[in-house]
Amino acid sequence: MIGTRLRSALLALSVAAGLAGTATSAEATPAGALSCRGVGIDPATQLHYRTETFIKAPAAAVWELHTDVARWPAWQPAVTSAQRLDAGPLRPGSRFRWTTPAPPTPTTPATTLVITSTVGQLQPGRCVRWTGPAIGDGLRIDRGVHVWTFTPVRGGVLVRTEESWTGEQIEADPATAIRYLAPGLDAWLAALKTTAEAR
């Protein structure tokens, strides 16, 4: 039952790969994991994925696009709303809330996942890390940890991202969960690349 519900709901929340929420104290970064100011994904989780893409655009422009959270719905089709919960540039302690739809499954109605994100670490133009839950009817990811790095390279910027998920519901079927986490991050990077390169 959890497997069927999970497969259906996680497909719709592939963009929720950008989860966020409450920042915690520094955690050890797994070997080879991405980090922002020395802090990476949740080292204890079995559910994590990492990907990257080259974007042929100025690093500053890509950073600005990515960290302008309130404008995410304009370029990310699966983000239906996004609201900053504080003013000013994104910084450690910044909070934002965003939503993404999840379709009905055989055991749950269609729902909207509400994701409340808190930035834990940030180095302007270089990296950002946020954490938090995604909550909807019939589906809950207790904690997502998402790290993004932006490295200027010849002709553009190399954007890397890594995310981990924890929670009883998704940990009950890790093989299914990871199959949806990966395409979610890939889709987010593809949208970022397409939008940044079109500017």
Automatic annotation (TrEMBL):
Residues 1-28 form the signal peptide. Keywords: Signal. It comes from the Bacteria. Coiled coil: none annotated. The keyword Ribonucleoprotein does not apply. Pfam families: Polyketide_cyc2 (PF10604). Gene3D superfamilies: 3.30.530.20. This is Polyketide cyclase /reductase. It comes from Amycolatopsis mediterranei (strain S699) (Nocardia mediterranei).
